[in-house]
Amino acid sequence: GSSGSEDEERPGTTAEAEAAEAAAAAQRREERLRRFRELHLKRNEARKLNHQEVVEEDKRLKLPANWEAKKARLEWELKVEEKKKECAARGEDYERVKLLEISAEDAERWERKKKRKNPDLGFSDYAAAQLRQYQRLTRQIKPDLEQYEKLKEQYGEALYPTSNSLLHGTHVPTKEGVDRMVADLEKQIEKREKYSRRRPYNDDADIDYINERNAKFNKKAERFYGKYTAEIKQNLERGTAV
């Protein structure tokens, strides 16, 4: 009787085990599918991020070498302009407010750096002179955001020219820009007049020096004492000096 009851229980137990195994297999399959979908989404996201990074790197490579420094300087200049406007709105002097925010160590360091810096190193070659002129002119440029917004509304996409854009004769300078250019040219003319051209060497002049330094000394002595020693010099040259 007991063996018969065991035989009756075995088919039910086997069916339950098979059902449990099938449910476990389905659960494992669903888990694998879920992980596969997650990996697929991660792969698509990584592909998208890689494409964006490639595009950004291509943009960075096409920018000038000193673009980061220029960008940082422009951002700093914009902050300075905003600070000046805030001080003007409050009726405060921007220079005084700026000095209050500078520590004594920074002020001393900037003063030492200013003393070491020589703004005019003299003429070495035309390339260096052109570079100094370019740097001086670019330092004078101040961003005018209001004028920029007006130009952007006026020209639209034409404000950002490409290689196919034709802009010749379309730009009209402002009166302030023309006045600034005229003032700069007048400063250049005034500064140019202060320089003296090096005189060429005169082969017919008397040689009364042993080197260039001695020649400069003799010229200074002649300028101050020449009228008093002219007769002595003539006597020495004639050989009639006593």
TrEMBL record:
Gene Ontology cellular component annotations, sorted alphabetically: catalytic step 2 spliceosome; post-mRNA release spliceosomal complex; Prp19 complex
Pfam family of the protein (one): SYF2
Keyword Cytoplasm attributed: no
Alphabetical GO biological process terms: mRNA splicing, via spliceosome
Region (Disordered): 1-29
Keywords, sorted A to Z: mRNA processing, mRNA splicing, Nucleus, Spliceosome
Ranges annotated as biased composition (Low complexity): 15-26
Family: Belongs to the SYF2 family.
SUBUNIT field: May be part of a spliceosome complex.
Official protein name in the record: Pre-mRNA-splicing factor SYF2
